[in-house]
Amino acid sequence: MGRPKKAMPEYRFHVSGQAVVTLSGKTFYLGQHNSPESRARYLSLLQTYNENGLRMPDDVPTQQKETVLTVECVTAEFREYAEKKYTNNKSHLNRMLNLCNLLDDEYGNTPAAEFGPRKLSAIRDLFVASGNSRSYSNCQTRNIAYIFKHAVSRELVPATVGEC
């Protein structure tokens, strides 16, 4: 017998500093954690969820319009994902976490929607300038593109960002 559903979905803290709630399998970002606006959005989403028979309509946005998602938020989300996915491959996990740290250092406060091919090329040039081989630099560049494709799949950034 499966575990019974909780009566009320939890208002949780996300490592990006935002509040989140998961309803019908979708994660909704509510804004700055413990702010009155995020609490109000949480209650509004719960009301919609309860009115629709414990289901969320497809047209409800997963993020607030005024929330600017930074590269740091994207890497924080990816870190959570990577720690679950790469539990058996510690070397690959460390490589991906180091890439997240590099992205945070170089572009952490940049809006994620502004991260495009030029910024990706600048990071690739940084790898080459560090004396790394071309194959290593290209592999790391593909891994960064993978981080942003993950963000697109989680609907954190527009699909145009994942096309870098």
From TrEMBL:
Top-rank taxon, per record: Bacteria
Protein name: Core-binding (CB) domain-containing protein
